[in-house]
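Let's practice the habit of predicting before peeking. Look at the sequence and jot down your guess about where helices and strands might fall. Then scroll down.
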Amino acid sequence: MSKPLHKSRTALNAALFVVLSIGALGAMNVLSLRHFGRIDLTKDKIYTLAAGSRDLVAKLPDRMNVKLFMSEELKPPFKQHAQFARDLLSEYATYSQGKFNLEVVKIGDGEEARKKEDEAAKCGVQKSNRGVVSANKFEIGSTFLGVCFSYGDKNEAIPVIDRDEGLEFQISGLIKQLTVKKKKIGFATSEGELSVAHGSGLQLLSEQLKASGYETINVELKASVSPDIDALMIIGAKQPFSERAKYVIDQFLMAGKSVAFFVDGQQMQTPRGQMAPGMEMPQIAQSNDTQLDDLLGAYGVRIKQDMVLDKRNFPGLVNVGQQMYLMNHPVFLKVAPLPQNHPVNENMPGALLSYASAIELVGEAKDGKGPVQFTTLMESSKQSWRPSGPFVFMPGPQMQPLTPSDDKGPFVLGVVGQGKFKSAFAGKQAVKEDGTKIPADLSQPGVEPMKTEAQASARLVVIGDSDFISDQFIGTGARAGLRDYLANLVYTMNIIDWLAQDEALAAVRKKGMQSRPLDQVAESTVTMVKLLNIGALPGLILLIGLVRFRMRLSARQSAKL
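Done guessing? Here is the structure:
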């Protein structure tokens, strides 16, 4: 009688085990749907949504419909791009609390496919020619791979997806454009500055600002700056600022807004006159007299009228024989690593500056006192110096090495400050639009009372270089395949995000966009690493074989005894 009872218990235990296992798996599935998570071991967390992206999609005001259009015949590597895009969009949907409605539209052949193609084209997703290398041939096919976003009566699209890098930033940027009120960035154009107007030197920056959901506008520093502008950029000024222009800037900052000065202390100029045949035209550093010392000095900052040179440099653009070349020279400063002491510098590897000038703190700011807290953003290396006399730059094959002077670095090249700035016009007269001055306490129609102290939200950035963000500088480096140049664009966007108090997409923008070159090492170290790579594994196998041989030989000898 015991055998049947034993069999019954065994069957009951087996059935109970199956039921509990199914229940546990079901509970795990329910928990995984409610509590999503993943482990991402990449340094930039490429395969995990950044906090800014999660917050953006979690706070969607209303439902957003998203369609991923993809051809069924996609081949590697575009098939992998499609899978990455699908997984990424699915993660957006997971964090959206049901407001991010994702639909994957696969386009095959036949009449139904033509309808889907028309739908994709209407939304802005484009058919693209994609080359594919197989085992024995190279093929080119026209396929779809793009995303359409619909929110209310507005549509935006990523027309073509051809890489994984930067896709999260594109998606989050479009979501922000569709759902969040755009912040406005003003660019001063009164004193010869670079601007976002077509052909005015900042087109690459303008495109990046648009992709990040910003609105840009050029500003004449005559009338007061509109209060709906969140930050004012002054980049590459080459002329003296009028008293009215300085007053407009000052009052904008006193209103608790943000201002950035990217201004050179010196500029390179070619002397007039004819040169002897066969000789290169030299460039001479001359003071860039913008007459900003009194304005910036009142805030605690000064741009030195000097030129910083550095042995730690990078390939920069020079004109040799009427042609442009990339060459290393101390005027091209590689500022790295950046101190991780401020959100602007967070996770940034460095920046590239050319013909840069030093920045110094003055007054109370120099002693770390006063109502404004300043932080150093970037500085030159200990191998930097400032020429003792006029600096002459004559690139070419006969260029002689420069001898460092006794005025050695490091030198501060950029600072950031926040706090209750004191007005540069406090105790002085207000400046009207026509340039005339009136007592600050005198009330007149159309003249606002002077603000003498800024709100605590006021922010200021001062950098002694403007070339590093110009189209010519960044575009040339990008065309030459030097990714470090693109880091300048990311870095400037970090500055603008901080100025506009809109840092949500800063971490997203930096993901996968940083260049991480190998550290330079001695030739002997390189040779040693090569030898280890060649001989380490065979040597290890040989060593294991010798140990096993000795063990077997010892075992045989013991057996004979």
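How did you do? The two ends are 57 Å apart (CA to CA).
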